[in-house]
Sequence to fold (388 residues):
Amino acid sequence: MRKNLNLLAKTLYGFEPLLAKELQHLGAQEIKTGNRLVSFKGDLGFLYKANLALRTALKILMPIHRFTIANNSMLYQAIYRFPWEDYLDAGQTFVIDSVVTGPFFTHSLYASQKAKDAIVDRFRKQNGMRPSVDTHRPDLRIHLHIQDRQATLSLDSSGASLHKRGYRNATNIAPINEVLAAGLLLHSGWAGQSDFYDPMCGSGTFLIEAAMIAAQIPANINREEFAFERWKNWDPDLFETIHKGLLKRVIAPKIKIYGSDKAPSAVRKTQENIQQANLEDFVTVTRFDFFKTQKQSQGPLHLVTNPPYGERLTGDITELYQKIGDTLKKEYPDTAAWMITSNLDAMKAIGLRPSRKIKVFNGKLESRLLYFPMYAGTKKIHKLKHNE
Fold:
């Protein structure tokens, strides 16, 4: 029986419940939500599975040492005494990423330097050799978190952030983060239950993430590498078993997933990314001006989009949002319409009252995910009883 590990998944603001639900569905144990993180337990195979399958996780960390400190000397000694040889050989490479808060430690780079010195000095004293630092592709990526006097050392099992799925080579201006896109889709209740449309698809992130959810394709199946593949306990046979097990769950959606954009460059980039994600059979994209379209689906439609916020737009942002509202009212009955925006003033020009408002962050921009349920047989929006 494999030993259970204490694990930690980092996520975006407001996505903690979504991530906890994902972990529960995968079979994690002792799930607890925190601030932009969810802790849980699982064995080594589950660590592989979490990295492959979680849609709303940015990183999967494995805490290996917790201690209390009050000054630089205590930090150095605690890290020096830790048995790093269990995780790292003298001929290998490593890097340390630090996050520090509180009155005792205020500079993350300095904390990383002290930790690096302690690790190097321990190896040098033991056998005269020392591991090197590699900031680009290290054998071991270490995460140091210090809050007030409490310090935690973790191994970063993911490496590059998990939003880097491996399918998006072509991007448009200000592309939406893949983890953010997946979380917004899950917030909207998307599960592949109806046709899906993104009328301003940009580089196609919503379309690809929506298709992967509908087809039950693991979020990071296209990644070339995870950091745990360089660990001393790397088990390629176990990874292959987990990988195959997840692929057995993939289904062929019986719905239509399509997008459009009026910019030829956006359509071209979306098509390239769809091909890179091997989703040509599930997703189509065409060049259309949303304001000259009509709903294609006869039944319910799930619409999610990320319109311009105004930062890079030439023209009247208020007029743009007004036209979005008019098009939804006139041409898109029986549609669950969702959009994210950081322009809360322009949002009012839509002329529709959102049934739900969910606070999120698009990068550093405080934004809202808005829900406009458009009903069949009427051009009016109905007020639903939801918590805003």
Q: What stands out?
A: The radius of gyration is 23 Å. The first strand starts at residue 5 and ends at 10. The longest helix spans residues 108-127.
